[in-house]
Design goal:
Blueprint: E1 4-8, E2 14-16, E3 22-26, E4 29-33, E5 42-44, E6 52-61, E7 65-74, H1 83-91, E8 103-109, E9 112-118, E10 136-138, E11 142-146, E12 149-158
Antiparallel strand pairs: 1-6, 2-5, 3-4, 6-7, 8-9, 9-12, 10-12, 11-12
Length: 167
């Protein structure tokens, strides 16, 4: 489940960015997300209220994964000397929106999503992270690199880990 924020009060437009998640196992289930700590860089356009308030909803996992609400209240302060460095570091963890692949093809056969991408510059440490779909579970992708071609095969089941849904 992707993180979300429900803002309290009048808020101008806010763009927030998600860093590349990690993949890890919890109770024999492979999941993707953030472990221990995450920084979500944001851009607030317009005049923000004196205090930013809202509720951040994240999936948190220990033995099971549950949606957890984190109410927050932040009073913006004068920019400190480390802000530009910290912001640039946080944005450096956000995946690029375009330019990562020269071509991208997606196909589905019962029980498997197949993503094929080419990149003339080759692949050094590729990863594939998928948004959730109701009642669909995507398992850990199997990645195969051959030169400039990457093929990711993702096992797909329903939420019960049984039959493959029709995507």
């Amino acid at each position: 489940m992707a993180p979300s924020i429900a803002w309290k009060g009048d808020m101008p437009e806010v763009s927030w960015f998600w860093p590349t998640p990690s993949r890890f196992d919890v109770a024999n289930i492979t999941t993707q997300g953030y472990h221990d700590e995450v920084t979500f860089p944001m851009i607030v356009r317009g005049t923000p209220p004196a205090t930013l308030r809202g509720v951040l909803t994240l999936s948190t996992c220990s033995n099971v994964c549950l949606l957890t609400d984190y109410p927050f209240s932040v009073t913006p302060t004068v920019q400190n000397a480390d802000f530009a460095h910290d912001y640039a570091r946080a944005m450096g963890k956000v995946p690029l929106r375009s330019g990562l692949t020269d071509s991208l093809d997606v196909g589905y056969r019962p029980g498997e999503l197949v993503v094929t991408a080419t990149r003339a510059a080759g692949w050094s440490s590729p990863g594939l992270y998928l948004d959730t779909i109701d009642d669909v579970d995507f398992a850990k992708p199997r990645l195969r690199v051959e030169g400039d071609r990457l093929q990711a095969t993702v096992p797909v089941t329903d939420s019960w880990g049984e039959k493959a849904p029709d995507l």
